[in-house]
Amino acid sequence: MSPHPPALPPEAGSGSPVQLVVGLVLVLFVLWVAYRIGKVILRVVAGLLFLGLAGYGIWYLFLR
Prior knowledge:
Elements: H1 17-63
């Protein structure tokens, strides 16, 4: 018995060109959606940070 596992046939794991293109399009679409969501989240976080700093500045200057 050989110590190596049996080799897979050349057809195993390789999809047709149509499957590869569809898979690539799906991956690119998911990355694009994640990018758009990330931009929105970044804007919200930046806005909250700005409001927090502005509120702290107002409190520090006028209310303490």
